[in-house]
């Protein structure tokens, strides 16, 4: 490896995954301060980074759906003079397209597919580890040297370009990729009421997109009696880092919004239901406490986690999240409210 490599790091995954991928970039920058690192993220996610700084030199919008997309990608990699492509959380499409481009241009392609159990050259391949540790291990195995990096030393960082003033704002993250990851909406409404009764100086906001799923959540919130003191906001991706950094803290489900909150320096309180917190919460739990009911047999019936979109239990339905009452949550976050 040259002293100043030109690396294309690819993470063609969801919003939260792309944010956690910044940790591997920060590690690489620490190893190769003079390097050029281009971070390729899905086209729809790229706006998140437009008004912010990260450890990457460039955020690149990647798309591999058509021949035109692939041709553009090839030409851009050639234009950037990339000498190493590394794909984090390898996908089937990426394995074919990126490996083919690397072969055509005569440059190196490496990848980490943590689902594989066979030996791939990555340290601790196939072990269940915090997601950031998996990314770090893949980069370390192919591009690193010296001591193996530890995930708690490399929390992702996103810095909005403008100076942000803190406001008495609390962000509720009520959305999730599936229903089994959602703390009940009525609990959010109850928690908000309790917070505002004791601390009326605060404002509570709920970020929602304009998707059909989020519109349904909005309808459900109003049906359940959402208070006029709680504001539903439709911030676009480009605005999110700035608005999040203004806030006091985040409380909500394990979703991309939570990882963004961590990256801009917010305190977070996160609900974990079907998935193990030790894997999907790769952060210091003192700075970022979470709610998780351990040792549930239903969670591990098929895998080491529950992959159901809807809980199928008649007895104990969604106990993994219903166990945490608004009163219990308020008790934990009260110190942060008062600080």
Polypeptide structure, described:
The protein is of the alpha/beta class. Helix 2 runs parallel beside helix 5 (131-143). It is built from 12 helices and 13 strands. It has helices at 15-20, 22-31, 67-80, 92-105, 131-143, 185-198, 212-223, 240-246, 256-263, 277-280, 319-322, 326-338; strands spanning 6-10, 36-42, 52-53, 58-62, 84-88, 108-112, 159-160, 169-173, 203-207, 230-233, 249-253, 267-272, 290-292. Strands 10-9-8-11-12-13 form a 6-stranded parallel sheet. The protein has a 5-stranded parallel sheet with strand order 4-2-1-5-6, sandwiched between helices.
**Which strands sit side by side, in order, in the main sheet?**
10-9-8-11-12-13
Find the CATH topology of the largest domain: Rossmann fold
Number of domains: 2
Output the helix-strand order. EHHEEEHEHEHEEHEHEHEHEHEHH
Please give the alpha-carbon distance between the first and last residues.
Answer: 48 Å
Going by CATH, what is the homologous superfamily of the largest domain? Glycogen Phosphorylase B
Q: How many beta-strand segments? A: 13
Going by helix content, strand content and strand pairing, the class is alpha/beta
Percent of residues in beta strands? 15-25%
Kindly provide the radius of gyration, computed on alpha-carbon positions and rounded to a whole number of angstroms: 21 Å
Number of helices: 12
| Shape estimate | globular
**pLDDT averaged residue by residue:** 94
């Amino acid at each position: 490896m040259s002293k100043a490599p030109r690396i294309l790091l690819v993470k063609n995954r969801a919003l939260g995954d792309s944010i956690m991928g910044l940790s591997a970039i920060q590690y690489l920058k620490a190893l190769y301060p003079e390097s050029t690192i281009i971070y390729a993220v899905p086209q729809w996610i790229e706006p998140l980074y437009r008004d912010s700084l990260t450890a990457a030199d460039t955020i690149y919008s990647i798309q591999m759906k058509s021949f035109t997309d692939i041709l553009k990608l090839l030409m851009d990699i050639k234009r950037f003079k990339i000498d190493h492509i590394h794909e984090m959380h390898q996908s089937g499409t990426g394995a074919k397209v990126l490996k083919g481009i690397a072969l055509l241009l005569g440059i190196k392609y490496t990848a980490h597919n943590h689902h594989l159990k066979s030996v791939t050259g990555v340290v601790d391949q196939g072990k269940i580890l915090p997601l950031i540790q998996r990314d770090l291990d893949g980069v370390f195995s192919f591009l690193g040297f010296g001591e193996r990096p530890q995930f708690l030393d490399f929390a992702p960082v996103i810095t909005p370009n403008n100076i942000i003033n803190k406001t008495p704002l609390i962000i509720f993250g009520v959305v999730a990729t599936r229903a089994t990851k959602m703390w009940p909406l009525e609990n959010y409404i109850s928690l908000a009421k309790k917070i505002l009764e004791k601390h009326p100086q605060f404002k509570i906001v709920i970020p929602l997109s304009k998707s059909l799923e989020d519109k349904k959540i909005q309808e459900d919130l109003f049906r359940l009696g959402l208070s006029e003191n709680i504001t539903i906001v439709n911030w676009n991706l480009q605005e999110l880092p700035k608005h999040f950094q203004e806030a006091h803290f985040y409380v909500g489900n394990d979703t991309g919004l939570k990882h963004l909150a961590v990256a801009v320096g917010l305190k977070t309180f996160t609900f974990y239901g079907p998935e193990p917190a030790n894997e999907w919460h790769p952060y210091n739990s003192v700075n970022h406490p979470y709610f998780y009911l351990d040792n549930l047999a239903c969670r591990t019936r098929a895998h080491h986690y529950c992959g159901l979109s809807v809980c199928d239990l008649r007895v104990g339905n969604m106990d993994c999240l219903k166990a945490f009452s608004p009163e219990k949550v308020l008790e934990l976050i009260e110190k942060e409210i008062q600080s």
